[in-house]
Amino acid sequence: MKKRKINYVTSSRFKQEEIKVFLEDETMADGTKVADVFEFVLRSEEIKEILEVDLVVMVQAEVINAYSRIKVPCIVEHAGLVFDDFDNESYPGGLTKPMWNTLRNNFLEETNSAGRMATARAVIAYCDGKSVQTFVGETKGRLASSPRGDRQFYWDTVFIPDDPSGAVSGKTYAEIVSDPSLGLKYKLKHFSQSAKAMRKFLEHVARTGAPEMWGDL
User: Considering the entire predicted model, what is its pTM?
Assistant: First the structure.
């Protein structure tokens, strides 16, 4: 079976690492391995990010910018935190990254968010030159009292996903990845908002067929 090629525009080494693990382990709804159906072409491009709270609006603009640069159908992904008590405003949403880049380990203190209930939200946007489609993944959780874990991938050191099974014992994303009994594979399979969004996108493509302009990229 001929694989469908997907141009994934990202300059993040962490996202590139996650896609590699995702492909190795993930299966489609029918049990077929994702790696047997799709081939990801990672395009390391610096895409201009607009300042926008709404992640969907933000990522739609990003993927249009990405398409205008590489001239082939592509996807981009962006994730952020949404505090439960600001859910209607989607805050901080798309502002999470610049806030974290500025505040870093002072993020919790400066935003008064230690222990706060929050949702990790990821949006994947796909542009084929004709239209833009978005796919959203979410994980409920709360913010830690202080940054914990070795993997310095933005706010992974402060986000604790809800886990009814108790397997992660209140660990942050970064601690889950650092735990040899869990690891990145466990995070992606059970919690990652980005993996949830990606599953929705891939199932959509598998269900509807490759877009007309996909072609052999």
Answer: 0.93
